[in-house]
């Protein structure tokens, strides 16, 4: 092989951690060489995936939320108002202490999340029941001094794509419905990424600091560990009381509001790339792929006719809104396949003189590798219908893999073994002590009680043997 055609190859996805790190570099998602721990740089290609993903979440939220942008700096006296919230974040906050060489009168926190930036303003904005519900969101960077092992897209100290929504409601029940709605929205969002997620109610010791309760969605990573890829929190009137957010109800009474917040980060991209990718690189759902179709001219004779046909197909597909690239570089076809497979392009079209004679083209699917000859006359319809098929196939495959890796367990030993491969579904009596013992003995963590499962059996807590109707997901987590 000529020197300039030597290609970097990925380790097998069986070695997931190595595969993940190399994939980010070779497919040009993130550059990890930035000299601040826990901060990484988006390559333009990675960023264009991010843009397509975040366009989806914007589209879903924009139906009944409004986008906004609050400051990054939070004054200490606001940050320090909510006791539980402070305790939850005190070890994770970066503080700005100086302006140049002048010590600041008021210390400023870099937001680890924005409750304490947003709620002082909500106090001013919420006046009457007519102002409610209020549903705003922002997509910003947030900072958390994480002490666990940092990892690109997964555990960051500078989260670059923190989508946080903050809603205000008249009653506790309305806020509870909003939490359910947020979880439905996240499930829908992840479905668009062809990722199945498991919603569960977090145990009390794992809820968001300052919340009444937390519901989270988790995805399963290829190595059997789960990743929390979204959370929705019922804040009750806890923050309303500390930030004095009141509204005048229909009887003219001043009442504390009830609030929720819910967020996702670029972890959604970590699970997207990890779930669908393979030994050849990325596999992207068509809606996400920056390039949806790559056309490879197979030229050894009649180059002009072949290139004309490629350009015609490109123009026709682009007119239908498809993102198309022609790779007419002078690399060998094999080398071009390699490149575009690494980038996860869902469909490859090959057109050569023989195809032209048949008025046809070769269509190759990235997800299955299947190749098929299709008539040039109907190429647009073939491509569009393939996109739907690929999207459905990716979701189906990921769902089957997830279901295969959820295991019913009744003993601690069983849990210990099964969490090596995936997620254990385990009876739990509801006592905190049993939950913590289970975590410790199984070498894993309780995710929570599934919120989409109707339990009708009775089970036995594997720790205390008490009867229970509740089961929890237990997994090794990122
Ligand atoms: N204010 C609430 C709702 S926005 C909040 O901060 N919730 S959170 O702490 O649970 O964070 C929301 C989501 O961000 C988490 O579910 C998780 O998916 C993601 N996340 C949290 N910490 C990190 C981190 N260090 N790196 C990447 N993603 C993170
Ligand atoms: Zn128990």
Question: Which terms summarize this structure?
Answer:
3 domains, 27% strand, 478 residues, five-stranded mixed beta sheet, alpha+beta, Translation Initiation Factor IF3, BirA Bifunctional Protein, domain 2, Rossmann fold, 14 helices, eleven-stranded mixed beta sheet, binds zinc ion, binds 5'-O-(N-(L-cysteinyl)-sulfamoyl)adenosine
Describe the protein.
The protein is globular. The protein is α+β, with helices and mostly antiparallel strands and 478 residues long. The chain folds into three domains: 11-276, Bira Bifunctional Protein, Domain 2 (BirA Bifunctional Protein, domain 2); 293-386, Anticodon-binding domain (Rossmann fold), CATH 3.40.50.800; 406-475, C-terminal domain of ProRS (Translation Initiation Factor IF3, 2-Layer Sandwich). The longest helix is centred in the last third of the chain and has 26 residues, at 379-404. Strand 12 and strand 13 (254-256) form a beta hairpin. The chain is 34% helix and 27% strand. The model has no long low-confidence stretch (mean pLDDT 96). It has an eleven-stranded mixed β-sheet with strand order 3-7-8-14-11-10-9-22-25-21-20. It has a five-stranded mixed β-sheet with strand order 16-15-17-18-19, with helices on both faces. A three-stranded antiparallel β-sheet has the order 4-6-5. The site of 5'-O-(N-(L-cysteinyl)-sulfamoyl)adenosine has 20 residues, from strand 8, strand 11 and strand 14.
């Amino acid at each position: 092989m000529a020197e300039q055609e030597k290609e970097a190859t990925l380790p097998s996805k069986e070695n997931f951690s190595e595969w993940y790190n190399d994939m980010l570099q070779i497919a040009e998602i993130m550059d990890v060489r930035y000299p601040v721990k826990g901060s990484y740089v988006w390559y333009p290609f990675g960023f264009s995936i991010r843009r397509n993903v975040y366009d989806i979440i914007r589209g879903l939220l924009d139906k009944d939320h409004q986008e906004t942008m609050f400051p990054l700096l939070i004054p200490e006296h606001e940050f320090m108002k909510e006791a539980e919230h402070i305790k939850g974040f005190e070890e994770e906050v970066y503080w700005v202490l100086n302006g140049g060489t002048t010590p600041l009168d008021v210390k400023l926190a870099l937001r680890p999340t924005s409750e304490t930036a947003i709620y002082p303003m909500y106090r001013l904005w919420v006046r009457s029941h007519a102002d409610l519900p209020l549903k705003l969101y922002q997509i910003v960077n947030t900072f958390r001094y994480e002490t666990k092992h940092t990892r690109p897209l997964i555990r960051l100290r500078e989260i670059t794509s923190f989508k946080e929504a903050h809603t205000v409601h008249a009653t506790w029940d309305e806020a509870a419905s909003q939490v359910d709605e947020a979880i439905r929205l996240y499930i829908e969002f992840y479905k668009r990424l062809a990722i199945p997620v498991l919603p569960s109610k977090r145990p009390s010791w794992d809820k968001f600091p300052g919340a009444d309760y937390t519901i989270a969605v988790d995805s399963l990573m290829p190595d059997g560990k789960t990743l929390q890829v979204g959370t929705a929190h019922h804040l009750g009137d806890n923050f309303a009381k500390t930030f004095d957010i009141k509204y005048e109800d229909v009887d003219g009474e001043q009442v504390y509001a009830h609030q929720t917040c819910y967020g996702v980060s670029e972890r959604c991209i970590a699970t997207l790339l990890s779930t669908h990718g393979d030994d050849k690189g990325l596999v992207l759902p068509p809606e996400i792929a920056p390039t949806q179709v790559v056309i490879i001219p197979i030229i050894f004779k009649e180059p002009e006719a072949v290139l004309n046909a490629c350009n015609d197909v490109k123009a026709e597909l682009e007119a239908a809104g498809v993102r198309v690239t022609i790779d007419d570089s002078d690399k060998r076809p094999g080398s071009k396949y390699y490149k575009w497979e690494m980038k996860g392009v869902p469909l490859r079209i090959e057109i050569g003189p023989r195809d032209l004679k048949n008025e046809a083209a070769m269509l190759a699917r990235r997800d299955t590798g299947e190749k098929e000859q299709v008539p040039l006359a109907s190429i647009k319809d073939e491509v569009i219908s393939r996109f739907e098929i690929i999207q459905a196939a990716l979701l189906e495959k990921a769902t089957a893999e997830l279901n295969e890796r959820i295991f019913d367990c009744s003993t601690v030993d069983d849990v210990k073994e099964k969490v090596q491969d995936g997620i254990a579904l385990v009876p739990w009596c509801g006592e905190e002590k049993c939950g913590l013992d289970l975590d410790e003995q199984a070498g894993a963590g309780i995710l929570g009680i599934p919120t989409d499962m109707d339990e009708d059996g009775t089970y036995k807590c594997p720790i205390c043997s008490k009867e229970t109707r509740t089961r929890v997901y237990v997994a090794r987590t990122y």
